[in-house]
Design brief:
This is Saccharopine dehydrogenase. The chain is built from 11 helices and 20 strands. The protein has 2 domains: 109 residues, Rossmann fold (3-Layer(aba) Sandwich); 184 residues, Dihydrodipicolinate Reductase, domain 2 (2-Layer Sandwich). A hairpin with a 2-residue loop joins strand 12 and strand 13. It is globular, with a radius of gyration of 20 Å. The protein is an alpha/beta fold.
C-alpha cells in the first residue's frame, strides 16, 4: 500500500500522469454523450477515448483522429495513461477515475454523479488535497442548469431562490447512464426550502407549468444542483422537477411512485424493468428546461432549448466544463481544488457560450399572469 496525501492506494492501481501537451482523456468517450463531446473537443485538443468496448469507437476514432484504449471500470485490470485533463462520462461507482486523476495531478471533470455520489466525491477530493482543479459538473445536463443559475444570479445581484423544471422528450436519444436516476426514485432526498432543510419524496409535489410553449406536468426529482446551489450561490430555496413529453407517461411514473414501486422494486432483479420505463433510445428529440430565479433585483426566467436533444446539451455542458478546468474559456484556470459549474468567473457570458454550442437560452421576466400551479 502507498500513502499519498490523505489517500491510500493499492500497488498496481490505475495511474494517470499529467502532461500539459497530452491528450484529453474521455472515459466513456464513445457513448451517446461521449461521442457528441468527442466531436466537439477534437477541434481543440488531441483525444484519448477509453471504455469497456473499444471496438465500438472505430468510426468515431477515425473521424476525430483519436486514440482508443480499453478501460473497463468493472474490471480490476489497472489502466495507465498521460493526459492534460480527464472527463468522466460514465458512472464510476468505485471512484477509479477520480482517484487516478487526484493521484496524478490531472484536471478532472465529472458529469455523471447523482447527489450522494457527488457528496462522496467532494469528501474524497477534499481529503486528498488535490494539486489540480476538480470540477464536479453533475448538475442537470452536464452542469448546464447550475451555469444558467449563475447567469441569473449575476443579473439579479444574488440568488434567493431557484426552481428548475425539465421537459424530458421520450423521443430523444438517451444513453443508459442518463437514466441511472431511476434507481433513486424510491429514496427520499434532502432539500433546502425557505432556508429550512427537510426530506422530500421523489415524484411528489406535482404541478403543470409551461416549458418552451409546452404545458408540462413535472414532479420532484433528486439532482445535485439542489445540494450545490445553496452552498455556492446562497439560495435559500432550490428545487428541481422533471416531466415527460407525454403527460400520460409522467402520470404513470407518479402513480408508480405513489404505490411504492420504486421503493420495493429495487436491486438487480428489477433493474431491467426500471430502466425500460425511460431508456428507449429514439431517433432524436428536443431538450428543454426552465430555470426561475429570484434575487435582490427581482425575478428572471431562462428557457433553455437544444434542438439536437439532451445528449448534445449534456455534451455542451461537459465541453464548457473542460474548457473551464483548462483555462480555455478566456479566464484563468481555477486553482487546485473542488469547483462547481456555478463558480464560473464569467456568468454574464453563459448565454453566449451556450449559444456557441448550439443551445439557446432565452431570458424573460415573469409576470403575475404567468402560469405556475
Amino acid at each position: 500500500m502507498t500513502y499519498i496525501g490523505h489517500l491510500t492506494y493499492s500497488v498496481g492501481m490505475d495511474s494517470l500522469h499529467h502532461d500539459p501537451h497530452g491528450p484529453v482523456l474521455l472515459v466513456g468517450g464513445y457513448g451517446t454523450v461521449g461521442s457528441a463531446l468527442a466531436r466537439a473537443a477534437a477541434a481543440h485538443w488531441p483525444l484519448l477515448l477509453a471504455g469497456r468496448s473499444p471496438q465500438r469507437a472505430h468510426d468515431l476514432a477515425a473521424e476525430t483522429s483519436a486514440e482508443v484504449r480499453a478501460w473497463d471500470l468493472s474490471d480490476p485490470t489497472p489502466f495507465s495513461a498521460t493526459a492534460r485533463a480527464v472527463v468522466t462520462l460514465v458512472n464510476d461507482p468505485h471512484d477509479r477515475v477520480l482517484t487516478a486523476a487526484l493521484r496524478g495531478g490531472v484536471a478532472y471533470v465529472d458529469i455523471t454523479r447523482w447527489t450522494s455520489r457527488l457528496q462522496r466525491a467532494l469528501t474524497l477530493t477534499t481529503l486528498a488535497a488535490p494539486t489540480a482543479p476538480v470540477l464536479l459538473s453533475s448538475g442537470w445536463m452536464g452542469g448546464v442548469v447550475p451555469l444558467v443559475a449563475a447567469a441569473l444570479a449575476h443579473e439579479l445581484g444574488g440568488l434567493d431562490s431557484v426552481e428548475v423544471a425539465i421537459r424530458y422528450d421520450l423521443a430523444d436519444r438517451a444513453g443508459a447512464d442518463s437514466v441511472e436516476f431511476m434507481d433513486r426514485l424510491g429514496i427520499e432526498f434532502e432539500v433546502l426550502e425557505q432556508g429550512r432543510r427537510h426530506l422530500v419524496a421523489p415524484l411528489s409535489s406535482t404541478r403543470t407549468i409551461d416549458i418552451g410553449g409546452h404545458a408540462t406536468k413535472v414532479t420532484r426529482i433528486d439532482t445535485p444542483e439542489q445540494f450545490t446551489l445553496p452552498l455556492t450561490l446562497g439560495a435559500s430555496t432550490a428545487t428541481t422537477r422533471i416531466g415527460f413529453s407525454s403527460t400520460a407517461s409522467t402520470s404513470a411514473l407518479v402513480g408508480l411512485g405513489r404505490v411504492g414501486f420504486f421503493r420495493y422494486a429495487r436491486g438487480p432483479r428489477w433493474q431491467g424493468l426500471r430502466r425500460r420505463l425511460l431508456h428507449a433510445p429514439g431517433t432524436g428529440g428536443r431538450a428543454q428546461l426552465r430555470v426561475d430565479a429570484t434575487g435582490p433585483a427581482g425575478q428572471r426566467r431562462a428557457t433553455v432549448t437544444d434542438p439536437a436533444g439532451q445528449a448534445h446539451m449534456t455534451a455542451v455542458g461537459a465541453l464548457l466544463g473542460l474548457r473551464r478546468v483548462l483555462g480555455a474559456d478566456g479566464a484563468p484556470a481555477p486553482a487546485a481544488g473542488v469547483v462547481f459549474p456555478e463558480h464560473t468567473p464569467q456568468p454574464a457570458q453563459v448565454g453566449a457560450a451556450l449559444e456557441a454550442g448550439g443551445v439557446d437560452m432565452a431570458l424573460s421576466t415573469p409576470t403575475p399572469r404567468d402560469e405556475a400551479a
